Amino acid sequence: MNGAGVKQDGAPYTGVGKSQYAQGGWTTGDKTSWEQQLKARAQYGQNDYTRMPK
Description:
Elements: H1 31-45, H2 48-51
């Protein structure tokens, strides 16, 4: 094998086009908005300490 059929993955922030699963506020291909969405998701969506009632 000479590796001619190897396909490289694109950067994750490039997206896959229009998708019903894409988060609002994220612009396809915009690395800055991608990083902001990841930070917000980590802080508010997956952080149990901020979601627990006091």
